[in-house]
Design goal:
304 residues, alpha/beta, Uracil-DNA Glycosylase, subunit E, 2 domains, two-stranded antiparallel sheet, globular
Length: 304
């Protein structure tokens, strides 16, 4: 930089201030300032959203909770929940009720600082029905978000995931799983690494509220979460993308999800066996055996 250029910049600073000059310099996409600006902007969009009636009936909108004092801190991964509950609706923060505390505790046991995680929901407002007591008191009763509410909020939660600037997402619960694919079931997918929209590695587990209801033991659920943390730390998603579908060497399509035996499958073959089966090599072997048996029986009938 020569003397004239330095003088020109000095005059700009004197006239407009250093902050204005800095704002004129385009920041890299993953620069902390650019990340913080994106997070603030998307949070404001969520708080102003009126795309469905929930935006008008909820106490407050519940945007994503970002790490760092000024939203600049990098996140290790994101946690995607279903929707805010009564406690979240009152405080404007995700995962702060009983279920949220259980999840944060499990992450803490796995040596994950809560400040290193982005928490968000597929629906950013409290889905509820109004119930009137015999004394005339109106209270909000939580319910599952409708498909229309999830569709209206889809743009918001995807924008928040983009702003999170993460590669791994812990999906909590069947409703959050629908944001990935509506035809997937949490009982089939929990504890399995998959790929969402060719952008994020996702790992579904039961919602912590289901654990509070005793659907699964806390220890078993925590082990799945700790396994997810190992996957993130080892960047096992990158390794998975280098694998191909393992349907007996016939396919060769890119990885989409692991089965219960830990083998990779493409999306087409994974979905092909959706009818109540937890896809695995043993399942395919059984299906092939059935097919061979049917052909043998048909051959015997023709000979007879």
């Amino acid at each position: 930089m020569n003397r004239d250029e330095r003088r020109y910049i000095a005059n700009l600073i004197d006239k407009f201030g250093a902050d204005v000059l800095i704002s004129m310099i385009p920041a890299p996409t993953h620069h902390p300032v650019a990340v913080a600006v994106a997070r603030v902007n998307v949070s404001e969009t969520v708080e102003e959203c009126r795309l469905c009636p929930l935006g008008s009936t909820a106490t407050c909108h519940v945007p994503a909770e970002w790490p760092g004092r000024r939203h600049r801190a990098p996140a290790r991964f994101a946690v995607l929940g279903e929707a805010p509950g009564p406690e979240e609706d009152a405080r404007g923060r995700p995962f702060v009720g009983r279920a949220g505390q259980l999840l944060r505790g499990a992450l803490s046991k796995g040596s994950v600082n809560s400040d290193d995680v982005v928490y968000l929901n597929t629906v950013s407002c409290f889905p509820h029905e109004q119930e009137v007591s015999p004394r005339g008191k109106v209270r909000k009763v939580i319910r599952q978000p409708t498909d229309a509410e999830m569709l209206a909020c889809r743009r918001n939660f995807l924008a928040q995931l983009d702003a999170a600037n993460v590669r791994y997402v812990l999906i909590c619960g069947s409703t959050a799983l629908k944001a990935w694919r509506k035809d997937l079931r949490i009982t089939q997918c929990q504890g399995k690494l998959g790929v969402m929209l060719n952008k994020w590695f996702v790992y579904p587990v039961l919602h912590p509220a289901a654990i509070l209801r005793g659907i699964e033991t806390v220890s078993e659920w925590e082990r799945r979460i700790w396994r997810f943390i190992e996957i993130v730390e080892g960047d096992e998603g990158t390794t998975a993308l280098e694998t191909k579908c393992s349907k007996f060497g016939e396919c060769g399509e890119r990885f989409w999800m692991y089965d219960k035996d830990g083998l990779p499958w493409c999306e087409g073959h994974w979905v092909e066996g959706m009818d109540g089966h937890n896809r695995s090599v043993s399942w395919w072997l059984r299906e092939m055996a059935k097919s061979d048996q049917m052909e043998m029986e048909l051959g015997e009938e023709e000979e007879g």
